[in-house]
Amino acid sequence: MSDIQDKPTMVQDEHVSTKPRRRGGCVGHCLKLWWVYLILLIVIVVIAVPVILLVIVPKIAQSKLDDAELSIQGIRMMNSQAQNFTMSINSTILSDGKIKATIDGFPGKMYLEDYHDHTPFAIIDFPATTADAEQVVNVTQFTQINDVAAFTAFNTFLLMNDTFRVTVEGDTFVTVHGIARRYPVTFKKIVTLPGLRLFAGTTVFNTSISLTPDERGNNFKGKTRIPNHSLVTFEIGNTTFHNYLLGNEVGTVYIDDLTLIPGDGNVFDMRATIENTPVLNTVQEKPYCEDGNVPFQLRGKNVTNHGQYLSYFADALAAGNQTIEINIGDSIEKLVGNRPTCKTT
Ligand SMILES: *[C@@H]1O[C@H](CO)[C@@H](O)[C@H](O)[C@H]1NC(C)=O
Ligand SMILES: *[C@@H]1O[C@H](CO)[C@@H](O)[C@H](O)[C@H]1NC(C)=O
Ligand SMILES: *[C@@H]1O[C@H](CO)[C@@H](O)[C@H](O)[C@H]1NC(C)=O
Ligand SMILES: *[C@@H]1O[C@H](CO)[C@@H](O)[C@H](O)[C@H]1NC(C)=O
Ligand SMILES: *[C@@H]1O[C@H](CO)[C@@H](O)[C@H](O)[C@H]1NC(C)=O
Ligand SMILES: *[C@@H]1O[C@H](CO)[C@@H](O)[C@H](O)[C@H]1NC(C)=O
Ligand SMILES: *[C@@H]1O[C@H](CO)[C@@H](O)[C@H](O)[C@H]1NC(C)=O
Ligand SMILES: *[C@@H]1O[C@H](CO)[C@@H](O)[C@H](O)[C@H]1NC(C)=O
Ligand SMILES: CC(=O)N[C@H]1CO[C@H](CO)[C@@H](O)[C@@H]1O
């Protein structure tokens, strides 16, 4: 028994006796080399603190900014002039909100992500924000058109596409609460915006035609409903369109004071000067004579707003044809009392 007890004791003794010896060795060693440890500590502090402050914090700040999401609720372009307009943007920045920080205001370049050289079509001054989970950023700003070609491309993309991508990019500074240092960061967000789909779904109704033109030379009047599939409101102005019938130009369509708003509330008076003969011939041909609907094509011709020619809208509207059916049969019936019949050839 004592043998058995002795053994563990001996083992324990060995432990007890060896540990202090090792520690003593370390203490002695450490004491002798205290200056090495001090230098190491200083080096760690001197290197680690700046590494944290200069490398890690800005990296985190940049990556938090990269993870944030920008969404646009509305864009408004008003008081459109040849060289400038007033732009309003309602937007929201969503982030995880875990860092308390402020982001300085900055000039944000806006450009088409899918257009060759990324020339900005507008530069918007974004206000200072915080890094809270949800930031509402609504801006209204007088905006110079510095590059008409880029702004025309933006309007063309907006008009032609179902969706298109716009990038907002700018260099700014972030201040993380508790650190008295401003870090340079880049704000870059790509947003997908709904486009106008070339006004697909436009209808013309309440039409009337006259055989003798009025004092402005118009022989066609009606109302048009233009759906706005996008979230852009814009003041276009007095707009004219080439009017084609079966590939031939047959006249000009006018819509005055055109301002499009999002949604279905876009109903405007339209008037036109149209050659009677090709229209009257077509409406008596099959299949048009069956229901009286004649397919016209419209393509932008001219846009003037308060006396200024707006090439950036005119050229965008000229980029494509929109087919619109107009019930000429009904208009003729209103005019002469009976519908045109199908020509027998
Ligand atoms: C922004 O929101 C305000 C308030 O709802 C609204 O009056 C304004 O028309 C909106 N602007 C844009 C550009 O969507
Ligand atoms: C805006 O542009 C028009 C020409 O398109 C010019 O007459 C006007 O002076 C400009 N306004 C400002 C404030 O630059
Ligand atoms: C900002 O725009 C949003 C719509 O996106 C609106 O709900 C909010 O009221 C606007 N805020 C201000 C201060 O205009
Ligand atoms: C948008 O429209 C433009 C001009 O018609 C076109 O070049 C571009 O490829 C379209 N598509 C997208 C996704 O932007
Ligand atoms: C259509 O025209 C008639 C008569 O010209 C008018 O009473 C009616 O209000 C018009 N409808 C619309 C939607 O403008
Ligand atoms: C629009 O249609 C007319 C007549 O069919 C044609 O001459 C013209 O080239 C078309 N334009 C575009 C941009 O499609
Ligand atoms: C556009 O219309 C205005 C006013 O009618 C006219 O002065 C101008 O010459 C037209 N511009 C083009 C490019 O057709
Ligand atoms: C549109 O043209 C009419 C004349 O046809 C003019 O009285 C009106 O001021 C013009 N509107 C704009 C916004 O330029
Ligand atoms: C006809 C149509 O698509 N209208 C849309 C216009 O844009 C708004 C959003 O701004 C949609 O809610 C509408 O459905």
UniProtKB/TrEMBL annotation:
The chain crosses the membrane at residues 34-57. The keyword Signal does not apply. Residues 1-24 are annotated as: Disordered. The keyword Transmembrane helix applies. InterPro entries: DUF3712 (IPR022185), Tag1 (IPR046368). Keywords: Membrane, Transmembrane, Transmembrane helix. It comes from the Eukaryota. Residues 1-17 have a biased composition (Basic and acidic residues). GO terms for cellular component: fungal-type vacuole membrane. This is Uncharacterized protein. It comes from Podospora appendiculata.
